[in-house]
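FIELD: query
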Amino acid sequence: MSDLDNIRRRVEAKELREEDYATINAMIDSYVTLYHAVGDKAATIARLRKLCFGSKTEKTAAVLGTSSADPTATTSEAASEESEEASNAKSGGGESRGKGHGRNGADRYTGAEKIEVPHPTLQPGDACPECEKGTVYEAKPKTLVRLVGQPPIGGKVYYLQKLRCGLCGQIFTAPTPEAAGEEKYDATVPAMIALLKYGSGMPFNREERLQGMVGVPLPASTQWDLVHTLAEHAEPVYEELIREAAQGDVVHNDDTTARILESMGRRAEQFATDEKKKGRKGLFTSGIVSTREDRRIALFFTGHNHAGENLTHVLSRRAAELDAPIQMCDALSRNVCSGNTVAWGSKNIPAELKTIVAHCLAHGRRQFVDVADSFPEECGHVLKALAIIYKNDADSRELKHSPQERLAHHQTHSRPTMTELKVWLTQQLEDRLVERNSSLGGAIVYMLKHWDRLTLFLRVPGAPLDNNICERALKKAILHRKNALFYKTHRGAHVGDLFMSLIHTCELGGMNPFDYLTALERHAAAVAANPPAWLPWTYQETLASAP
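FIELD: result
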């Protein structure tokens, strides 16, 4: 460093020596080398920046800095959102409302008590009190929404009057009101606790503190006892849900890390499993979303198994007469169903374990998003091409195409774009316009290596573009991990998987998970006798037909 300081002083005095030129030349070479090295690692630095400061969006316009008016400035994340989610966000309750009326209309409050208030003096058909000539008739009612705060778990204390005879000592107690019920904990209590913990990520101890603050104590241990009992009652439905999911036309799967204390550290020696004996220490929560026509089922599995192994477990219950389902996942080999890891002609693999594998286009797109700062022109070409594909898919969904119509739509409008994109990507490597070992080269190599599975939507009816629906489902497990940190035992993890599966399946189907879990608890015997009648999409009909 002292030599460099001396050279700097000679540069400022314009008195360079002969040997200084070699040193300066070496410094320039070092700078150029460092510049390219940082450029190659741009993806890692970009992801670190996102982890520290967050990432608002991956929209093409935001990544490339283009105008929002650009018709190709679509995002794979936004364009792939389900149509009903978009319509719900736009509807806000159905009709236009004035300022100060909130963003949700009265019809969005499906869980609120509905109270009809008749006019105190008029009825339909009465004379108009204003003009005294016309008659009044029924019009659309005015709606008022009133919200009240209350504890998640409320309580009532009944004081039953007791009278004692002064002569014989006989005690007479007031009868228990019918509304009080026979049990201390109503069926709604475990349903709400399960919804708070496994649907919203509120740990038992945090719920205990909240209940204590509002004057209705509810210990964490009691909460576990209640949800564990509800889980036992709902277990037959969970098993039936797995069987139904195995019959899906498209199955999405992925996983995220998990923590189970009895399989970590010294505890693992006491609770060793077969996977542990084989040397696998990793713990994962796998998310599986199965779709068939308009029905979507979410499943969660936590343990040592990878997503592909859990999907194999699910598909083992698939009906033999059904065709192979489409499997959407990322390119990690551990996510592929194990039936696809051997030759298709193997007689040892049942047909129901084979899948038609598609890879997530959003994963391929994200690799170009990560390096867009270093290669804006090249990444812009790819992102704008993929924006066209997502725009075509959104148009097909808006037109309510069948799988065959959607395939024809993509073959007509998306295939030319994807064909041109593949030619362009190949040319970048073959003409050495991009260094294969650079970050941009790695993104291109990934796309070309998995091209057939990334473009399955151009050849197979119903093949999705990406795995975003499963990514969103896993957020429920990630939220629980973020708040509760870990499961204590594998039994606790199974209870969490069960409730997350039931709750998120209700959410995907637009059903009320609180009402559903309450119904399972109140009709536990009927659920055990006939689980198919108590699935999220059948239980309301079952309740309606009950005597």
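FIELD: remark
The beta strands are 162-164, 171-173, 250-257, 284-292, 295-303, 326-329, 356-359.
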